[in-house]
Design a protein that fits this description.
- The longest helix is centred in the middle third of the chain and has 14 residues.
- Strands 1, 2, 3, 5 and 6 form a five-stranded antiparallel beta sheet that branches.
- About 10% of the residues are buried.
- This protein starts with 7 loop residues before the first strand and ends in a 26-residue tail after the last strand.
- By secondary structure, the chain is of the alpha+beta class.
- The protein has two domains: about 90 residues, no CATH class; about 40 residues.
- It is built from two helices and seven strands.
- α1 runs antiparallel to α2.
Length: about 150
């Protein structure tokens, strides 16, 4: 077997777009390029693939294979905070209390992308992997064959 059961892919980060203050960019984006797969003997082979899914239920992947962050303004907590704030419209004291209460109870989601070690990225091959031709290694038997004894 040339490819291990869990092949190691190597690549690089091509581009990063941070949200920052959220004025220019509302979502973060991460462009990853995996261009090599490491074989079981330690050699590496060129790889062409794109990311199709992130297994953390936060980020999504666009058609080009870039990881897209979430918009903190599109979350349920932001909508609920807006509704609670609109209930206090016209009363400045109530607006202060509802703003403070919603800020402590309804937290905004972190819009920046965080992929800690162990985050699974599902990739799809965009071209076949060309593996080097190798000769099969014949393994000699561990024990010599049993000979019949004459009695």
């Amino acid at each position: 077997m040339l490819l291990p059961s869990e092949p190691l892919s190597e690549g690089s980060v091509v581009a990063v777009r941070k949200v920052g203050l959220g004025v220019i960019h509302e979502t973060a984006r991460l462009d990853l390029l995996f261009d090599r797969v490491v074989l079981s003997n330690g050699d590496s082979v060129p790889l062409q693939c794109k990311i199709v899914e992130v297994e953390n239920a936060r980020e999504s992947v666009d058609a080009q294979g870039r990881v897209q962050g979430i918009r903190s303004t599109a979350t349920l907590s932001n909508r609920a905070s807006g509704i609670v704030g609109s209930l206090a419209f016209g009363d400045p004291i109530a607006a202060i209390f509802t703003t403070a209460a919603s800020a402590s109870v309804l937290r905004f989601s972190e819009p920046e992308i965080s992929l800690p070690a162990g985050t699974e990225l599902i990739a799809e091959l965009t071209a076949p992997i060309v593996l080097p031709k190798t000769e099969p290694i014949l393994v000699p038997p561990l024990l010599p064959p049993l000979r019949k004894r004459r009695i």
